[in-house]
């Protein structure tokens, strides 16, 4: 062979980046053996380095073992790196120790992989001893190594409890988004909104800041001792501050970074943007947006997605859309952001449509995408679509993803299929506090005692309780009328778990006392709350006054509500119905006049049902549905049949100046009755009917639906704004207590 050929082979070995494929790497190795055997240890180390770039662990190891000990530092570096990038972190660290024991001195190329392995094994002590080694070698002034050290400290010096969140940064977001979607279901002016809104989740994801600050001290020290800092160093420290919730410091550092000669890059900006979206600071967010445009980052996918998130959190979905449409390239991440933007802001239909578009555009959804879209199915109670997605999730192997499974539990529970929810829950590899909470909340909404026994199991399993799970437990007690148990859990929560009761907890208990007829006790309880009660807490009691026909208390409670919110439509509507039912038409008329003067309208009741993959919505007395004729016919037919079985319409809440026939008609066309009639005529006999309603089911409809379930031989599941009702054979799962 000519020396010229050998020269060119050497040139290849010097310039690793020229080798673009595994095949080329092996080809080069083969030629080397053919032309230069025996190959020197130095040249072999270069081949190993190239192999490790392609993650060819086995080939690297085989070659490594042919070299006489002690192998050159470069070979060790490659082996350590290759182990780490193959996920064999322990092997990587063992090799690091072996390397030192054979007398090879690690250089700046070795430490990043070693520190990465320490992070992955969550071994801070080992990381610290590596830091000692770095200092002894005088490498602590090295930029590359310094960045790796900061990263190690930023990631490892966090309290244990929150580590999973760091591993999966999307978890927090996902939790946030499905809670938000719940909030959107329960309109704030609605009675009992607190029961399932789950605002308390904040407590669950908030970090104990003081402990973390300790970790950041070390990071800062490393940062300060670095003689040269690059964008990565700044990014690491800014990100550390953002993760620890020290936003002021993060922003201060951003400014400082700008003052030094470095310009923030797309990673910096996308780290900083969530601060503004979390604090709903549209003004500052827009400043960053402006900065991004001026510096040519506006086409960047990272930034684009962060901006979409920011605008969505500030409820500016239109701006999110605009940004999305301007992105030169939309990947799964930016699709996720825009879909989440819709779902979080209650635009469920649009979210689902975008998801379909994403699939049509051949963008493969990330595991995370499913947990974003699932709450939309849950909200629209589109069980069919939810099941289709579930099948898709199984096909794409995403069913073992903890967050996806959790969102499936939530979806099935909210679509009224509690059995499937439980099956998925039971088959989850690990159940974390969020999945337990979802499952318990699912049971609570169905009024199952299982909620309470599952909560006991959760305690036995040693899973940490959180504020939301107690909302679920108290809700379950409330739905089952368990006053003593509720008191017990309420005090356990504060005394044993150190969770301060929030509005939802108070509301659940007040609601329970009210339903049990203990109105005075409920009144005293609300009056003694250590946080200021809201209108919705009081209005839970007001609806109890209506059920128990206690006018004196109702007046007292209404006064409290109007002190807090003089425009509380829900309270006026309740009073109006209450006086109407009692035949106090004069009082009722007064309220009607006040409402008119204030420009208030009772919120229209709306029910929806999914038929053949399409969601149909019905409003009380609405005649606009294309099949209205058939629906009306079915309604009359059903009414006649249940009247023959003994059903008597309860028209007590309809003004008395309306004639009997009109009254009978008015109650029979409540929105859930229309939806059920439509369900009956458009599905085969015996199919379960699932209806969702935005308000509480009225007493008359509840009675009528019990009759319908028996007469028509159908299981009917109605989800109202508070809970589920399973009607079967003339009975309801709530035991008429709702
Ligand atoms: Zn009704
Ligand atoms: Zn019921």
TrEMBL record:
Residues 646-738 form the DYW domain. PPR repeats lie at residues 230-264, 331-365, 466-501. Gene3D superfamilies: Tetratricopeptide repeat domain. SUPFAM superfamilies: TPR-like. Keywords: Repeat. Pfam families: DYW_deaminase, E_motif, Eplus_motif, PPR, PPR_2, PPR_3. The keyword Repeat applies. It comes from the Eukaryota. PANTHER family: (WILD MALAYSIAN BANANA) HYPOTHETICAL PROTEIN, PENTATRICOPEPTIDE REPEAT-CONTAINING PROTEIN. Belongs to the PPR family. PCMP-H subfamily. This is Pentatricopeptide repeat-containing protein At3g23330.
């Amino acid at each position: 062979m000519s020396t010229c050929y050998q020269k060119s082979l050497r040139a290849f070995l010097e310039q690793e980046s020229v080798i673009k494929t595994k095949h080329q790497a092996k080809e080069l190795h083969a030629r080397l053996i053919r032309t230069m055997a025996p190959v020197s240890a130095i040249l072999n180390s270069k081949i190993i380095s190239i192999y490790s770039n392609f993650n060819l662990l086995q080939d690297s190891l085989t070659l490594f073992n042919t070299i006489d000990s002690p192998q050159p530092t470069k070979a060790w570096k490659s082996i350590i790196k290759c182990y780490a990038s193959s996920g064999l972190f322990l092997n990587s660290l063992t090799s690091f120790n072996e390397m030192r024991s054979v007398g090879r001195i690690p250089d700046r190329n070795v430490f990043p992989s070693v520190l990465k392995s320490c992070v992955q094994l969550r071994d801070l002590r080992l990381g610290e001893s590596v830091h000692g080694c770095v200092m002894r070698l005088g490498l602590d002034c090295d930029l590359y190594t310094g960045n790796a050290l900061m990263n190690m400290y930023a990631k490892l010096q966090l309290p244990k409890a929150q580590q999973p969140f760091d591993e999966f940064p999307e978890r927090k977001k996902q939790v946030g988004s499905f809670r938000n979607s719940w909030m959107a279901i329960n309109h704030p002016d609605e009675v009992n909104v607190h029961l399932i809104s789950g605002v308390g989740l904040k407590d669950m994801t908030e970090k104990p800041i003081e402990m973390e600050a300790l970790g950041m001290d070390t990071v800062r020290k490393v940062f300060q001792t670095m003689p040269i800092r690059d964008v990565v160093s700044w990014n690491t420290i800014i990100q550390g501050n953002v993760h620890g919730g020290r936003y002021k410091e993060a922003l201060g550092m951003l400014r400082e970074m700008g003052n030094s000669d470095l310009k923030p890059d797309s990673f910096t900006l996308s780290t900083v943007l969530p601060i503004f979206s979390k604090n709903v600071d549209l003004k500052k967010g827009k400043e960053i947006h402006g900065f991004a445009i001026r510096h040519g980052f506006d086409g960047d996918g990272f930034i684009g997605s962060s901006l979409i998130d920011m605008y969505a959190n500030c409820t500016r979905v239109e701006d999110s859309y605009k940004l999305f449409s301007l992105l030169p390239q939309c990947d799964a991440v930016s699709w996720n952001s825009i879909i989440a933007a819709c779902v979080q802001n209650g635009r469920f239909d649009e979210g689902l449509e975008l998801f379909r578009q994403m699939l049509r555009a051949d963008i493969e959804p990330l595991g995370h995408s499913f947990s974003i879209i699932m709450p939309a199915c849950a909200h629209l109670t589109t069980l069919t679509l939810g099941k289709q997605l579930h099948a898709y999730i199984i096909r794409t192997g995403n069913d073992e993803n903890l967050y996806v499974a959790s969102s499936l539990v939530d979806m099935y529970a909210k679509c009224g299929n509690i059995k499937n929810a439980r099956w998925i829950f039971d088959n989850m590899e690990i159940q974390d506090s969020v999945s337990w909470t979802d499952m318990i909340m699912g049971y609570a909404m169905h009024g199952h005692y299982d909620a309470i026994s599952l909560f006991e199991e959760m305690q036995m399993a040693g899973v940490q309780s959180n504020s939301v799970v107690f909302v679920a437990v108290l809700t379950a007690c409330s739905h089952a009328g368990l006053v003593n148990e509720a008191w017990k859990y309420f005090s356990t929560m504060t005394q044993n778990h150190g969770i301060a009761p929030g509005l939802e907890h108070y509301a659940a208990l007040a609601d329970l006392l009210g339903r049990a007829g203990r109105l005075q006790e409920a009144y005293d309880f609300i009056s003694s709350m250590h946080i200021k009660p809201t209108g919705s807490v009081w209005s839970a009691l007001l609806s109890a006054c209506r059920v128990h026909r206690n006018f004196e208390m109702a007046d007292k409670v209404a006064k409290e509500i109007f002190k807090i919110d003089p425009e509380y439509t829900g309270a006026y509507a309740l009073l109006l119905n209450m006086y109407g039912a009692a035949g106090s038409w004069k009082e009722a008329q007064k309220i009607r006049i006040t409402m008119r003067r204030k420009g208030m309208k009772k919120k229209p009741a709306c029910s929806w049902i999914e038929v053949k993959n399409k969601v149909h919505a019905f409003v009380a007395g609405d005649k606009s549905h294309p099949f209205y004729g058939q629906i009306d016919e079915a309604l009359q037919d059903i009414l006649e049949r249940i009247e023959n079985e003994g059903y008597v319409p309860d028209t007590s809440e309809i003004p008395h100046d309306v004639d009997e026939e009109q009254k009978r008609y008015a109650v029979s066309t409540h929105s859930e009755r229309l939806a059920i009639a439509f369900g009956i005529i458009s599905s085969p006999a015996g199919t379960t009917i699932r209806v969702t309603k935005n308000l509480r089911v009225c007493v008359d409809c509840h009675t009528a639906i019990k009759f319908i379930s028996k007469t028509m031989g159908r299981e009917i599941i109605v989800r109202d704004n508070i809970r589920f009702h399973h009607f079967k054979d003339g009975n309801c799962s709530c035991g008429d207590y709702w």
